[in-house]
């Protein structure tokens, strides 16, 4: 890369600065794509940044987020989604030929041509990243929705988050649905993949990064394996308190039958909920 490590750190803090040309790699033949299959607040930014620090996984960012794709189009002067993706791959494929990308399932639902997309991504390996405590993830998601602070060090909208049980529940249901959608997508398509837990990654970063490289068929310099996360954890005592509060209500019928409802087509489900 052209930028110093300090400059890279500064640029990667801001969503908009992620598009800086200083973060581009020199032109390299693209031979493999490494996908972090993620959900909101799953720890994917921490994992992606840490994999990037190893020098073997490219620069895995949310390139397919609709607003990010639009900014890439503005940068390249392109409007066709497939051409924009081709341009991103051309500029963000690492020296070893690996293009790293972080994808939320909602990005796929919004993408116009999935067959064309994965044809461009080529030889692809995916890791489905999940968190053990989905309630804690939903609390973190609800805070980010309110403050606009999605990654550590990012300036938000200046608003203070408040405890909102209904919002946390909506975030929880979205996370569950998106995890299920990823599981179905990976099961139904011929993409080599594996799942990892965020806690597993954090507990032994060098071994997990080395294992991911081996699973994906990516050569990695063992001496360059990161020892610590490349970003600091955002959650604090507030997250823990709100998670406990969300879980602490007396057990009721909440959630019973939710999975069955989730099998219904969304249009029918919306009609049923309106009548309820």
Can I get a quick summary?
With 276 residues, the protein is an alpha/beta fold.
Biggest sheet record: 4 strands, parallel
Dominant shape:
globular
Query: Mean pLDDT score, rounded?
Result: 87
Please report the distance between the alpha carbons of the first and last residues. 56 Å
Strand content: 5-15%
- Give the class from helix and strand content and strand pairing: alpha/beta
* Cα radius of gyration in angstroms: 19 Å
What portion of residues is helical?
A: 40-55%
Explain the layout of strands and helices:
Blueprint: H1 5-13, E1 32-38, H2 44-53, H3 66-76, H4 81-92, E2 98-104, H5 105-110, H6 114-121, E3 124-130, H7 134-147, H8 165-188, E4 193-197, H9 198-203, H10 205-216, H11 237-247, H12 258-262, H13 266-275
Parallel strand pairs: 1-2, 1-3, 3-4
Give your account of this protein's structure.
By secondary structure, the chain is of the alpha/beta class. Helix content is 50%, strand content 9%. A four-stranded parallel β-sheet has the order 2-1-3-4, sandwiched between helices. Helix 3 (66-76) packs across helix 4 (81-92) and helix 7 (134-147) crosses helix 11 (237-247). Mean pLDDT is 87; it is low at 1-7.
């Amino acid at each position: 890369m052209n930028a110093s490590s300090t400059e890279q750190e500064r640029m990667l803090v801001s969503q908009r600065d992620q598009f800086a040309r200083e973060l581009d790699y020199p032109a390299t033949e693209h031979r493999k794509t490494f996908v972090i299959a993620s959900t909101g607040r799953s720890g994917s930014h921490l994992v992606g940044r840490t994999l990037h620090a190893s020098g073997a996984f490219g620069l895995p960012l949310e390139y397919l987020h609709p607003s990010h794709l639009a900014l890439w189009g503005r940068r390249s002067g392109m409007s066709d989604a497939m051409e924009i993706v081709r341009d991103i791959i051309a500029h963000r494929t690492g020296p070893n030929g690996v293009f790293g990308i972080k994808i939320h399932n909602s990005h796929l639902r919004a993408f116009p041509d999935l067959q064309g997309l994965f044809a461009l991504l080529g030889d692809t390996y995916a890791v489905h990243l999940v968190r053990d405590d989905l309630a804690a993830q939903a609390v973190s998601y609800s805070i980010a929705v309110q403050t606009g602070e999605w990654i550590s060090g990012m300036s938000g909208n200046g608003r203070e988050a408040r405890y909102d049980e209904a919002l946390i529940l909506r975030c929880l249901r979205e996370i569950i649905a998106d995890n299920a959608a990823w599981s179905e997508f990976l099961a139904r398509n011929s993409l080599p993949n594996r799942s990892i837990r965020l806690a597993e990654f954090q507990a032994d970063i060098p071994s997990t990064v080395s294992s991911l490289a081996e699973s994906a068929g990516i050569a990695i310099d063992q001496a360059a394996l990161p020892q610590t996360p490349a970003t600091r954890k955002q959650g604090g005592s507030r997250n823990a308190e709100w998670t406990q509060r969300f879980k602490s209500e007396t057990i009721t019928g909440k959630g019973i039958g939710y999975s069955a409802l989730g099998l219904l087509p969304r249009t029918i489900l919306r009609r049923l909920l309106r009548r309820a």
